[in-house]
Amino acid sequence: QLMESGGGLVQTGASLRLSCTTPGRIFSSAIMAWFRQAPGKEREFVALLRWGTQATNYADAVKGRFTISRGEAPNIVSLQMNNLTPADTAVYYCARGTTYSTIASGYNYWGQGTQVTVSS
């Protein structure tokens, strides 16, 4: 079970840092990803990190503003979100898999999500 933290209510232009903690060590073959789901919308890809090589991929909507990275412990992945806008309001989910994928069905393990709300 993955566990997200760090969500909250912020104003436009603010920053937040989300963390995802896994129950065990993250192996080099793992793909760690963040997705988000706004009310009435489908879950959408945000960013992914190939754990071993630290290669990353981002959705166009967040490129240049969000950064996915290894956290301060070997079982943590972080998502630094800068210059937030109301369009970023959603529940953010952490996911783990072994397939390099931007589709939710490509991931086996999920957290329960953390709410991010950006006011205008």
Explain this structure to me?
With 120 residues, the protein is mainly beta. Helix content is 0%, strand content 48%. Strands 2, 4, 5, 6, 9, 10 and 11 form a seven-stranded mixed beta sheet that branches. A hairpin with a 4-residue loop joins strand 5 and strand 6. The chain starts with a strand and ends with a strand.
For this entry, give a set of tags:
120 residues, mainly beta, 7-stranded mixed β-sheet, 4-stranded antiparallel β-sheet, 11 strands
Quick overview of this protein structure:
It contains no helices and 11 strands. With 120 residues, the protein is mainly β.
Helices and strands, with pairings:
Elements: E1 3-5, E2 8-11, E3 16-21, E4 31-37, E5 44-50, E6 55-58, E7 66-70, E8 76-81, E9 90-97, E10 109-110, E11 114-119
Parallel strand pairs: 2-11
Antiparallel strand pairs: 1-3, 3-8, 4-5, 4-9, 5-6, 7-8, 9-10, 9-11
